[in-house]
Amino acid sequence: MVFVVNEELVPKELTKKYSQKEILEIEKKYLAPAVGHYYENPVLFVDGDGAVLKDYSGKEYIDLFAGICTTITGYNHPKYVSTLQWQAERLVYTSSLYSTIPYAVLVKSLAEIAPEGLTRSFIVNSGSEANEAALTMSRKFTKNPYIIVCQRGYHGRTTLARELSSAGWRTFPEAHPPGVRFTPYGYCYRCPFGKEHPGCNMECAHYVREVIRTQTNNAIAAFIAEPIQGVGGIVQPPPEYFQIVHEIVKEYDGIYISDEVQTGFGRTGGKWWGIQHTGVDPDIITMAKGFGSGIPIGGFISRPEVAEGYTVTDSFATFGGNPLSCAAAVAVIEIIKEENYLEKAAKLGAHLKKRVDELKESHKIIGDVRGQGMMLGIELVRDRATKEPANQEILTVMELCREEGLLIGKGGLDNNVIRLQPPLELTDAQIDQAYTILDGAFSKAEKSL
Ligand SMILES: Cc1ncc(COP(=O)(O)O)c(C=O)c1O
Q: What pLDDT does residue 448 have?
């Protein structure tokens, strides 16, 4: 049955014009404190277009954070919204106990854009679930319990995914799932070995051998890493980090999992997946965020031999692979192809990086600028020599930007890294506007140094 949208049927509570004060009061009373908002005076968004969000009062904001690195196709992309509407009019849900067209079309599309050899997908609802599934599958395949994961990384908040996510999220006494071992990441700005790249012999990468030899039975199930750490503060190791680690992981019969929840779908520019910039061929890629551009969906794509033994008794998700989410993801992949986002991310990213490098020239609060494509980080420090994290000043910068109509993200173990991970619907003119706002905000925040 096909419907024409009838606004009269939409619950009046949803179409009513609320004030920000009213919504904050409801939230204060009914929302669990586990939900936290950015900004002292949280923003109430009601609408979006391209890379711009509009609040309840009509004020517009250029969004350089895309929710959290999620709305890759921007807000209200016509193809995306039309696909959602079209699918919603037909079939929102039935479980994966039955075949549906969107699920089948999606996994075929994923195989077409995945690195060579990755063909078999499993669809869930989030990045955490995708990582849990990929790791369980790797453990089953290798018959080994050990997972190697990078310090300062982030892989989600379910029990295992939380355990994989480095310090900063260990906020309460908890029982830790066994078998997880940590290895250093290639964080050159704050090298854990006190070295400088190049000329450091990549000790951070080689250290994984020491971890495996001293903390496992000389074999592992999997190594999992982000090609660029997102939550950890847009940390990007040199490509050889991944090549060295990959070689060692294979020596110990491990599965290499690239967590592309943030770096996937063209964000890093020029390629579909972040790992493709490093020369490493992963065994599994996990994905979420930009995958649905806002609609909840996650998943993995794997080498068929690894996926072979992971069966319906091992995993299931009631909402996993539902027609609405899968249709949205099919539309996202098509938009990326039709609008040449891979090239766009490289070009826009180069412009954004150039402007951020200019900011570094004129603002001593900026200690480091890093990242690639539409995934850049600006690490703020109180002193360039001591690198003391400017974790209060970053809040001032964020507030000042918000006042001027610019949204930016925050990350890093010390919460002192500005994260720029905008929708790919951003324009060069918006980048220049953002530069002017950031320039003013840094000048003001620096006064306290
Ligand atoms: C790299 C990475 N992996 C996994 C996750 C978890 O995804 P989700 O919040 O959808 O569970 C995140 C979320 O930020 C992430 O950044």
A: 82
Q: Return the pLDDT at 86.
A: 96
Alpha carbons 276 and 252: distance in angstroms, whole number: 22
Judgement on whether residues 326 and 381 belong to the same structural domain of the protein: no
Statement to judge: residues 315 and 386 lie in one domain: no
**This prediction's pTM:** 0.98
How many angstroms separate the alpha carbon of residue 177 from the centre of ligand 1?
Answer: 18
Contact 242, 236 (CB under 8 A): no
Residue of minimum CA distance from atom 13 in ligand 1: 156
Q: Quick one: which atom of ligand 1 is closest to the CA of 126?
A: 10
Q: How big is the CA angle at 361 (ends 355 and 363), to the nearest 5 degrees?
A: 100
135 C-alpha to center of ligand 1: Å?
14
Tell me, yes or no, whether 319 and 357 share the same domain.
no
Cα-to-centroid distance, 298 and ligand 1 (Å) = 9
Minimal-distance CA residue to ligand 1 atom 2: 155
The per-residue pLDDT for range 99-120, each reduced to its tens digit, is: 999 999 999 999 999 999 999 9
Phi, psi for residue 268 in degrees, rounded to 5: -85, 0
Residue 287: give its domain's CATH number: 3.40.640.10
